[in-house]
Specification:
The chain is mainly alpha-helical. The chain contains 10 helices and 7 strands. The strands form 3 sheets. A 3-stranded antiparallel beta sheet has the order 4-5-6, with no helix packed on it. Strands 1-2 form a two-stranded parallel ribbon. Bound molecules: heme C (HEC) (7 copies).
């Protein structure tokens, strides 16, 4: 039996939005950038000595494709306030672009992520040496709490420089989750590009997969192996009720009294095929 209340709460988009906003607020405070409103995504852009903000319209002249696509991007919805207020578009990540624009692209924007000569007097990360980590640094200016998540023991190898945030969160177009669209299925699609072993179709599907991978995995980081959100059988019991009848523990109508003591539900000999099975309806292998 399934507890629907719990299932919905686990992945509610509203919850995620709230978490994102709270996260951003904390991030902004930590970075010393002020955020006046929590209900809208207002950012105050930092100063970079020697450079001025010119607005995303200027970028369009030379970067037409990116600018056009950007209208659909989550980050296009940011509103700027404070002395640098123009529009917190391209420059919210790349920094003020006046010198870059005046030089016709010769001088790089303060935050670009390829090697080469950075803009004179640019503050923040020198992106030339370690491009992927410089991307992180820019994202962390506003998403400070994500940094903490990546410092947990089991995480995607972003801090190690083997992966970048943008492999899961494309910055220039559409939904900030790779895969496009807000559907959980497309988020899973993104994961499956790198993790083909978890891809079906499985004749014996595990319906939990429809709730998205994040139901069970905290991909920024977790204290549990395999980036699991919960380390033991409680991971499964949040959806699969446990009933006690006459001293017997029933899960899914079957006696689990002895089995539960043998370890997590997915341990050897039990439900090893948690992502779906090609042969066994009880997802045993
Ligand atoms: C006058 C033309 C021009 C304008 C205006 C302009 N750029 Fe560029 N930009 C270039 C050229 C040329 C390059 C280098 C060629 C390339 O890689 O596309 C470049 C490269 C870049 C890069 C990549 C740098 C690297 O190599 O790592 C970024 C990021 C960038 N521009 C952002 C912006 C932003 C943001 C704006 C608006 C604030 C802007 N540009 C406005 C011409 C321009
Ligand atoms: C959320 C942060 C963010 C925003 C907002 C953003 N960018 Fe970028 N941009 C990046 C990152 C990160 C990279 C590095 C991509 C890579 O390594 O493949 C990048 C790379 C670039 C490049 C060089 C590589 C390429 O794809 O050609 C250009 C040019 C560029 N951005 C222009 C823009 C323009 C123009 C805008 C606004 C319309 C913009 N960016 C908005 C984060 C951002
Ligand atoms: C100038 C501050 C700023 C920077 C820099 C920034 N973000 Fe964001 N980001 C925000 C804000 C504010 C939101 C919330 C947008 C909203 O929901 O209206 C957000 C939303 C997001 C979301 C969630 C979207 C959603 O709908 O839940 C992701 C994912 C994200 N950002 C990733 C990144 C990545 C990756 C980078 C670096 C390439 C980055 N951000 C750089 C401010 C920023
Ligand atoms: C392996 C893919 C992956 C990588 C790498 C990744 N993320 Fe995420 N990120 C996700 C997923 C999936 C979610 C949605 C989590 C959920 O549904 O609860 C998310 C959510 C977010 C959010 C919105 C919710 C929140 O926790 O604040 C932000 C902001 C964000 N990521 C920023 C980043 C930044 C910054 C980096 C790089 C340091 C990064 N992510 C690297 C997959 C990834
Ligand atoms: C761009 C490729 C890429 C994407 C996209 C990606 N991952 Fe990963 N994933 C990796 C890499 C690389 C590792 C680390 C493997 C290692 O250290 O050997 C990893 C590790 C993991 C692990 C831990 C595996 C273990 O044995 O400990 C889990 C779980 C995981 N990813 C789930 C996800 C989920 C869920 C998503 C989508 C939200 C996702 N991944 C998206 C590349 C990716
Ligand atoms: C119902 C919970 C649940 C869901 C949903 C889920 N996983 Fe997992 N996943 C697990 C458990 C439990 C393990 C650990 C299995 C083990 O240690 O044998 C795991 C392990 C993994 C591993 C490591 C595999 C290995 O061989 O060590 C990867 C990669 C992974 N999951 C990716 C994904 C992806 C991608 C998705 C979404 C398409 C997803 N998972 C959805 C529960 C889940
Ligand atoms: C997000 C909710 C959710 C989570 C978490 C979840 N499941 Fe499921 N599971 C379902 C749904 C829905 C079904 C299909 C309905 C049913 O059979 O009760 C299902 C079916 C199953 C079945 C097949 C039952 C049968 O005989 O038909 C097994 C076995 C199973 N889950 C094991 C697990 C294990 C092991 C875990 C923990 C790693 C887990 N589930 C976590 C939702 C979930």
């Amino acid at each position: 039996m399934i507890s629907t209340a719990n299932r919905r709460r686990g992945v509610s988009p509203r919850w995620r939005r709230a978490a994102a906003l709270a996260a951003v607020t904390i991030g902004l405070l930590a970075a010393g950038i002020s955020c006046r409103s929590v209900s809208r995504s207002v950012v105050t852009l930092p100063n970079v000595p020697g450079a001025k903000y010119i607005g995303s319209k200027e970028c369009e002249q030379c970067h037409e494709d990116i600018t056009r696509g950007f209208r659909t991007a989550d980050h296009a919805r940011l509103i700027a306030e404070g002395p640098n207020a123009l529009e917190a578009g391209c420059e919210s990540c790349h920094g003020p672009g006046s010198l870059h624009s005046e030089s016709g692209g010769e001088v790089k924007p303060p935050y670009s992520f390829t090697s080469g000569r950075p803009q004179r007097g640019s503050a923040g990360p020198r992106m030339a040496e370690t491009p992927p980590r410089a991307v992180e640094t820019v994202c962390f200016q506003c998403h400070g709490d994500v940094r903490g998540q990546f410092s947990l023991m089991f995480h995607h190898p972003v801090p190690e420089g083997r992966m970048s945030c943008i492999q899961c969160h494309p910055p220039h177009k559409g939904n900030a989750y790779a895969g496009g669209g807000s559907a959980l299925l497309s988020q899973a699609e993104m994961c499956l590009q790198c993790h083909p072993a978890q891809r079906g179709p499985f004749p014996f599907e595990h319906e939990a997969m429809r709730e998205g991978c994040s139901t069970c995995h905290a991909v920024h980081g977790s204290i549990n192996a395999k980036q699991l959100t919960v380390r033991d059988s409680n991971l499964c019991l949040k959806c699969h009720f446990q009933q006690v009848k006459g001293g017997v523990i029933l899960i899914g109508g079957s006696d689990h009294t002895v089995r539960l003591r043998q370890g997590a539900c997915w341990s050897a000999g039990c439900h090893e095929a948690v992502h779906g099975s090609r042969v066994n309806p009880s997802l045993r292998f």
